[in-house]
Write a structure and sequence with these properties.
- By secondary structure, the chain is an alpha/beta fold.
- It has one domain: Uracil-DNA glycosylase-like domain (Uracil-DNA Glycosylase, subunit E, 3-Layer(aba) Sandwich).
- The protein is 41% helix and 10% strand.
- The chain has eight helices and six strands.
- Strands 1-3-2-4-6-5 form a six-stranded mixed β-sheet, sandwiched between helices.
- β5 and β6 form a beta hairpin.
- The chain is globular, with a radius of gyration of 17 Å.
Length: 233
């Protein structure tokens, strides 16, 4: 059964990587991949949409905003190759959810335990600001992905954009007969929304503007990850 799920996730990843649904994002991700940053001028950029990755048996799903232009859009793996990822994977290692504290490139030996990492939008957006249209255009990929990750019980939302996307995603998965939540649950660090089959848990995004200013500290993100495991149990 696990091998079948892995095979289906691999097939879905291939489909996601070929997506061209959002013209603005296609143009930007490919422009960045052509022009490159000077520090990475000798590297070949991924320059395509990013599938999720991690443990197919995961109970925790980490939902980010979108790939960074010179991070995941370069390396081809979510949160890999930038400062946000450095902070995130160090936390995953400290809490026993990853075998190493760094994610540098595909094939670097990283193994996630009980965690799957994905994003609300699969392509790097200009100024790191995807539109609501692009978020909703990307939603069917997340519906299919989460449909294959049958053990997921908790969605950790990294930032307000991911929180809103998760609310829409879980509503779509619940079906049209379930009325929308009113008022809409507000995002906050440590915010919880209990539900079946998924609970949502808010965490400030591990961006430099949060980690460099102390808005998000190591102890804060560690506490969220530990709480996610408690909720999954």
């Amino acid at each position: 059964m696990e091998s079948q799920v892995t095979s289906e996730l691999t097939g879905l990843a291939a489909e996601i990587s070929d997506c061209r649904r959002c013209p603005r994002l296609v143009e930007w991700r490919e422009q960045v991949a052509r022009e490159r940053r000077a520090a990475f001028a000798d590297q070949r950029y991924w320059g395509r949409p990013l599938p999720g990755f991690g443990d197919p048996s995961a109970r925790l799903l980490l939902l980010g905003l979108a790939p960074a232009a010179h991070g995941a859009n370069r390396t081809g793996r979510m949160f890999t190759g930038d400062r946000s990822g450095d902070f995130l994977f160090a936390a995953l290692a400290r809490t026993g959810l990853a075998n190493q504290p760094a994610s540098i490139a595909r094939g670097d030996g990283l193994v996630l335990r009980d965690v799957w990492i994905t994003a609300a939008v699969r392509c790097a957006p200009p100024a790191n600001r995807p539109t609501p249209f692009e978020r909703d255009n990307c939603m069917p990929w997340s519906v299919r992905e989460l449909g294959l990750l049958t053990n997921v019980r908790v969605v950790v939302c990294l930032g307000a954009f991911a929180w809103t996307a998760a609310l829409r995603l879980t509503a779509m998965l619940a079906g049209p007969d379930l009325p929308p939540l009113r008022p809409r649950p507000r995002f906050g660090h440590g915010a919880e929304l209990r539900g079946e089959p998924y609970s949502l848990l808010g965490c400030y995004h591990p961006s430099q503007q949060n980690t460099f200013t102390g808005k998000l500290t190591e102890s804060m993100i560690d506490a969220v990850l530990e709480r996610a495991r408690e909720l999954a149990d």
